[in-house]
């Protein structure tokens, strides 16, 4: 089953004024273009009992911004767990890009995220993309954000006996001494461009950074990360991440 929704709004306004006197004549013209588009898609996939002894997840994406001032951010959280009764996989990938240019220079931003799981009986995936463009005669700002969330589950032994039931009363494992989950939180990256507040997201320079939290738990595990962050002064910011996690 797939559910999708998309919405977009485009508005433009142009104003012109002219003043004159016996000594000189002057005229001013300003134009404003704003575009805001959002797309959401949800997919649910089901299959029979899995013949695989492990669950694997591949999750990641990329973000690229072009302009005088640019920001590219990538964040991935992935968790794959395997036990005698149930295997689960969950992950979130968020990539954001903002490009800003002054004068006649063109700005551009693109962001993409993805996730795929193999070895699961049921997989739920949600994709969200938001694009914003704000442009005047002296400045243009382009931003895009993409988020993918996925959850998958595989019950290894549906015919288990009472002796194989899960113990839900067990206390959760304590965090290592001196470490807390708050220390690993991904940086907040929210932006909103609007004609009334074109400085609501102010960037200076070219920045690219990423945050990754990944864990694989089980008798046999595999975890890998491919990461790239690159900036070119006055031109470009880009970031790319791919995480592969497997447990069985």
Structure description:
The structure is a single chain. By secondary structure, the protein is an all-beta fold. It has one domain (1-8, 31-47, 54-156, 202-248). The chain is 0% helix and 65% strand. It is built from no helices and 11 strands. The strands form 2 sheets. It has a 7-stranded mixed beta sheet, with no helix packed on it. The chain has a 4-stranded antiparallel beta sheet with strand order 6-3-11-10, with no helix packed on it.
Summary tags:
4-stranded antiparallel beta sheet, elongated, 7-stranded mixed beta sheet, 65% strand, 248 residues, mainly beta, 11 strands, 0% helix, disordered N terminus, single chain
Strand and helix map with partners:
Elements: E1 2-20, E2 25-46, E3 55-66, E4 69-82, E5 86-102, E6 108-118, E7 122-135, E8 139-155, E9 206-217, E10 221-232, E11 236-247
* Major beta sheet summary: 7 strands, mixed
Give the percentage of residues in beta strands: over 45%
Ranges where pLDDT stays below 50 over 5 or more residues in a row are 1-31, 160-166, 184-200
Write down how many β-strands occur, each being a DSSP E stretch of 2 or more residues: 11
| Gyration radius over CA | 24 Å
- Compressed to H and E, one letter per element, the order equals EEEEEEEEEEE
Q: End-to-end distance, in Å? A: 28 Å
The general outline is: elongated
Strand order of the largest sheet: 1-2-7-8-5-4-9
Nutshell version of this structure?
By secondary structure, the chain is mainly beta.
